[in-house]
Amino acid sequence: MSRPRPKSPERKLPRVTVLATGGTIAGAQSPRSGRSYTSGVFSIEALLGAAPGIESLAELEAVHVASIGSQDMSEAVWRDIARRTQAALDRPEVSGVVVTHGTDTMEETAYFLNLVVKSSKPVVLVGAMRPATAISADGPMNLYNAVATAAHPEAGCRGVLVVANDEIHFAREVAKTNTTQVGTFKSTHRGLAGLVSAARIHFYGWPVRRHTSGSDLVVSGSRPLPRVDIVYAHAGMGPEAIRAAVRSGARGLVVAGVGNGNMNAAAVAAARTAARAGIAVVRSSRTGGGVVERNVEMDDDRLGFIASDELNPQKARILLMLGLSQTRDVAALQELFYAY
Ligand code: GLU
To answer: On the chain, which terminus has fewer CB atoms closer than 10 Å, C or N?
Structure first.
């Protein structure tokens, strides 16, 4: 008779907190093949239940935060997500946080968290392009991979990450580039943080700029962050949109400029007037890639403008909001765009 084998000690799974905010990943359509759907219908428990085996990756605790399409994301919800993320990560038993989120503004929430959460533990945002009820819904595998990433021992110290379509992106680098395709997220400047295939993970790189624990930017108190508006440049642009933003109380402006952050003479004149009145003016680009450099086609030193470096307009807006809550000094604000 063979002796019973000693039981192997149970492997303790990492604990991952999942914060649910809505989005297409929790969306339902009717009929199943139809194009119309409603975001944020399914509970986080239902989403986790649709990813068989996810419970073997981590010990999960799910928290409902919001049920919104991310087009409705707001500073109030950002703050709520940031506060809950920080609280979870501050608990020694929590290894990482996953945030389920609509894809429309995922890059903005990811970058906001990347600047204000102070922890070296992983934070992973995840969404889906197809509703939970769609044929070949991409949500369950994305969620499975996101939990695997947040539970991975080497996922920390990389800033906030976005997982979708078997790819791991850095918050600062990622952008949504397509209205419907599952491969919508791209990191065009310097590539991926890593790849993840059915929970098998390969990390490639490290963030190039300050983030999370290395960031001095904070969101504190209940006073809203200074208002920053984005104005989109185009051929034949007039001064009206810039003037309207200033008149309605913007403390900062991001111009989604043509090419290297350019705008025509009428817009430059309006932006210069705004800058002279103490409004921070950041030149970003509508091209979707590349560095906006100082003093190339525009004399930023004379005009009092700030160059966004590589940040797209929507991320430049977030950095400027946080920056303006610390300083209104143009040179100091410019330094933030080189640091973050
Ligand atoms: N507008 C929705 C959202 O951002 C759809 C995009 C998605 O989640 O894929 O929540």
So the answer is: N
* Segment-wise mean pLDDT, segments of 10 residues, the chain, 340 residues: 53 94 88 76 94 97 96 98 98 98 98 98 98 94 98 98 98 98 96 97 97 96 96 98 98 98 98 98 98 97 98 98 98 98
Of 167, 190, 214, which marks where a domain is finished?
214
Does a structural domain hold residue 204? yes
Candidate of 21, 24, 29 to mutate for ligand 1, largest count of ligand atoms within 8 Å of Cβ = 24
133 within 8 A of 37, measured Cβ to Cβ: yes
Read off the pTM: 0.95
Other beta carbons within 10 Å of 43: 14
Residue of 62, 38, 337, 24 lying closest to 176 (CA atoms): 24
Q: What was the pLDDT predicted at 58? A: 98
User: Ligand 1 in contact with 100 (CB < 6 A)?
Assistant: no
Which distant-in-sequence residues (6+ apart) come within 8 Å of 91 by Cβ? none
Helix/strand/coil for 22: strand
Quote the tokens at residue 117.
């959460």
How far is ligand 1, taken at its centre, from the CA of residue 245, in Å?
27
CATH number at residue 28: 3.40.50.1170
Q: How far is CA 232 from the centre of its chain?
A: 21
Return the closest-CA partner of residue 39 out of 50, 25, 19: 25
* Nearest protein CA to atom 8 of ligand 1, as residue: 102
Mind listing the pLDDT tens digit for each residue in 244-262? 999 999 999 999 999 999 9
Instruction: Give the active site residue among 17, 24, 103, 212.
Output: 24
- Closest to 336 measured CA to CA, from 251, 209, 220: 209
| Tokens 């640091």 belong to residue | 339
Residue 34: per-residue pLDDT: 72
183 lies in the same domain as 255: no
